[in-house]
Known about the structure:
Layout: E1 22-26, E2 29-33, H1 45-57, E3 66-69, H2 82-89, H3 94-113, E4 118-122, E5 125-127, H4 129-136, E6 139-142, E7 147-149, H5 164-172, H6 174-183, E8 186-188, H7 189-195, E9 200-201, H8 207-219, H9 223-235, H10 241-255, H11 259-269
Parallel strand pairs: 2-3, 3-4, 4-6, 5-7, 6-9
Antiparallel strand pairs: 1-2, 7-8
Amino acid sequence: MKASNFNPNSFAPESFKPEHFLWAFKDGVATISLDNPAQKNPLTFASYAELRDVFRHLCYETSVKVVVFGSNEGNFCSGGNVHDIIGPLTKMDMPELLAFTRMTGDLIKAMRACPQPIIAAVDGISVGAGAIISMASDLRLATPDAKTAFLFNRVGLAGCDMGACAMLPRIIGQSRASELLFLGRSMSAEEGERWGYFNKIVAPENLHAEALKLAGRIASGPTFANSITKNQLNMEWDMSLDTAIEAEAQAQAICMQTQDFKRAYDAFVAKQKPVFEGN
């Protein structure tokens, strides 16, 4: 799959106008949402590629401190577009299919590798690749109407798509993940919160505001240190305890050299709230 038309050399968060999804940026928080509400916001080949390229580039954008991946007109994402993606896939040969599945996986790799915490704000339908995007986010909010389904099994495919078999058991446990991946059934918002998938359930009319409020709290924190936290959460999945403790010792020593660490100390001494600047 070829790259999108995204040009990293001309990327500016304040003025960026993507071709295949919605983007807004304010106070260090970038907001993304898919833009086909009539079809419950499906993904296309082009939107996959552009999202992948943008998330890959975010590691160079220190002005972007948090990303909110939101819903649009009552739905998060209905997965791959049936006519634009599913139909063409049935006519592809193996090399073409592998290029596609690697591209979709590259989006998830880019989301996990970008240093900014990602908040998924899920309303309504979040299925297939849409469920994967919320899964790959760092924090997840939902409305009572959220319906999350890893429905690959229901279309004749394996549940091991875009990292589901690696990440989902770590979030909700092996047996619960197995149930969702083998049956392809929907997980309700209440189940998701009880199982630890969703951090919080909020009213639909408050979803976007709650996501921005949470993003603002993170953005006002020590963003370099937060990026280290995300990196360690990723890296320590397959480390032994001894290796993880040593990795955290080195990571924390790096953070202790930042000005934000000194700012926090100075503010404590002065009995003030620290104002972090991300360096």
